[in-house]
Description:
The protein is mainly α and 487 residues long.
Amino acid sequence: MASVPTSPAVPLDPEQERALKRLLWLVAVGFFMQTLDATIVNTALPAMASSLGESPLRMQSVVVAYSLAMAMLIPASGWLADRFGTRRIYVGAILLFVVGSVLCAMASSLAMLVAARVVQGLGGALLLPVGRLVVLRTFPRERFLQAMSFVAIPGLVGPLIGPTLGGWLVEAASWHWIFLINLPVGLLGALATLRWMPRPPAVARVRFDLAGYLLLAFGMVALSLALDGLSGLGLRQASVLVLMIFGLASLVAYWLHALRRPDPLFSPRLFRVGSLRIGLIGNLFSRLGSSCMPFLIPLLLQVTMGYSPAQAGMMMLPVALASMSMKRITTPLIQRHGYRRVLVVNTGLVGLTMASFALSSPQQPLVLLLLQLAAFGAVNSMQFTAMNTLTLKDLEPGAASSGNSLLSMVQMLAMGMGVAAAGAVLAAFTEFFGSEAGGVRTLQAFQATFGCMALITVASAGIFWQLAEADSQAMRSSREQDVPEAG
């Protein structure tokens, strides 16, 4: 199928319009698959733990592996698409995602499940970046924002139904089906891609910075495994320390490597932009705290309060609904008060709503719990929107693609590290209070964990406080409105 003309002066005939609509649906379905699987697992973790003979409080590796695999491959997604073709890579990503899903369903141990989640995450890492690239190269420039707004809708729907669908499948069938449902969707998506995705025109190939990529990937993996090793992997303290040192050394080595290379993966010149610098660092540390909530809340409800998987999944609906309701009021608030004031205040509110879960108990009124969940969803949504738009708003057009990839990588890395850190803190408090599965001591461990992760989030407000007045001003641009809302 030929590429659709990109010149605004060339009118599109009905067949080309239909081709554009089919392309949008293909990319939207891929994005939906990726975001759905990022959230559908959380409510099924206790059932998985029971089936695999593990403690439900040590299942964070299943979530960490997926996020970390995505963070690893995102920096290479653009080069892979240019080298092998966007359609070929997109089909390969769907098939890899499906294979990973089948392997997850077949897993008979936690180690096998974690390995399968890595395969699934590698496929998921390519779905959105490559899909966005196809839309960018196919759609007329004046219609790109509208196209990306359509593609972004599944990114909101996936987290909305993921926890509920996961809990229902666990009760109606078994946890294996949260992965097996990807099989028919993925196969149909691959066939539709081969049939309807256009072949964008060839682009100039650039040399891939393999050495820089390996340094960056190893640094991310080593730091994440060190955090996860504090609880989930059972690594001794010496091994954790060695992993952390190697990880930090690898990241420093990448920075020095990028300074002397003319075409690095991510140019250090990007960090001369104050809003991007503060936005990325703030994203990392803010998400270290808040990204653990979709992991901790379903566990709290099922392990200490007696909720069924389906009930725990339904309880996540107020978070998603409140998140979607905040989209319209976030931009006017930023335009009126500026990024600095909004982010400093809202980061404190995110921390306070997280800390409120330290008061949770089985005797807590249901209405109060629903209000807590809705309040967290609202302020967390505002936080994501403000952080993401701040990061990209001042980038020049030539640096927008690189900055967007860097932001996506930091988001996924922070999500994985946040869950790993929460798992380590929960394991430490479980050992401190004593192991009484489902009892008062386990509840105390959860309450203390919520308090600690809330403090991490509040501490990140100091990063946003460093925003210069000029960087704090809101700017309405296409980049500010189509930023990925990875959660």
